[in-house]
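Q: Predict the assembly, please.
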Amino acid sequence: MVTIAPDPASAVEGVPDGATVLISGFGPAGQPYALIDALIDEVGRTGAGDLVVVNNNAGNGETGLAALLATGRVRKIICSFPRQVDSHVFDGLYRARRIELEVSPQGNLAERIRAGGAGIGGFYTPTGAGTELGEGKETRTIDGRQHILEYPIHADVALVRAHRADRGGNLVYRKTGRNFGPIMAAAAKRTIAEVTEVVPVGALDPEAVVTPGIYVDRVVVTR
Amino acid sequence: MTCEHVDRGALNRDELARRVVRDIPDGAYVNLGIGMPTVVADHLDPAKRIVLHTENGMLGMGPRAHGDDIDPDLVNAGKIPVLERPGASYFDHAQSFAMMRGGHLDVAVLGAFQVDARGTLANWHTGERDAIPAVGGAMDLAVGARHVFVMMTLFDREGRPKLVPTCTFPVTGLSCVSRVYTDEAIFDLTSGEVVVVETFGSTVAELRARLEVTLHAPG
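A: Predicted assembly structure:
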């Protein structure tokens, strides 16, 4: 059952040491800044570390995901596109060998997360076959084409930015801010969503719900 | 097919983009890669009803947004603010890449470090030891789009050819590129050979002298 949390701090309470944390967003769009800030405070308070973070990127500027990386509590990041003009926090940690990097082609990353939420044990994909990113992976020729085996990503926690929620945890998103939100919400043991507004049950058009409330554990309203 | 020689000098980025647009069929679903291919969006003819896909989860992407039209929740694959066209739709990342991998996109226009004679593409990593690799959706587009067009300069800043017998940079996808649009010439790779379709700055003989690939020029 979904809980409507009074503030981001109580929404992120209980992220364990060594947790795998899915964080939605494609660059700043759909990035749950309030929940990330709360998580930074939370790991500062509890001392939890060794986190594995999954996002498309590795942070921009000094805020959000970049600020989380700067705490040194993230052991590893799994992403498709770490290097950007303003990814200097990650770049510094990586060059100092203070963070592990797993690069996954973007579609494989998305499908691995989807598979995690959907109970799929793995899948064969042509993406990455014959490249460095396919090295060491089981391969199989299907319909005359080389495929590689990719495994699902399961997570302890997902931090997701959505647009609106109802009190049952149903979520709708806004424009390209949707990106990884729906698949991440499904792939974690505990999904925490930040939204601009929580509306009564029945106020969202059931045909328009993108993430059904079954996937959502905690919701918090942020600016 | 004959090779068209137009002695107008090498094409600039906008001229090349207009030339790429000529080969995109009416009503096509198209993905434009980051960098030079993004310019193609500025030269689309509305009458052709081309629908742009952006891998972060949208069909019906419009042009770049400015001023009050900028919406932080509406960006393209390069994280640049854009507008939406009437009839646009939004979807999550798994759906977006299913469209790509599933063969639903008609054309992807990608930039490249290198393309080789068999259509193998290298565009994600220079392979330098201290370089941070970043692949994004390049590998998915390379294997998934029905037609992969490459848009690039024919030579790098040091004058080395980017159309090569075999890629030396880490590859993005094997035998996936059908056409290569460059400032100097257009090459078709669909027959398994490098066929010069059109030249701009140099003649075929001049290109033969500067490239290590075997060029076929019909007509």
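Helices of chain A lie at 8-11, 33-46, 65-70, 88-95, 106-118, 181-187. The longest helix of chain A spans residues 33-46.
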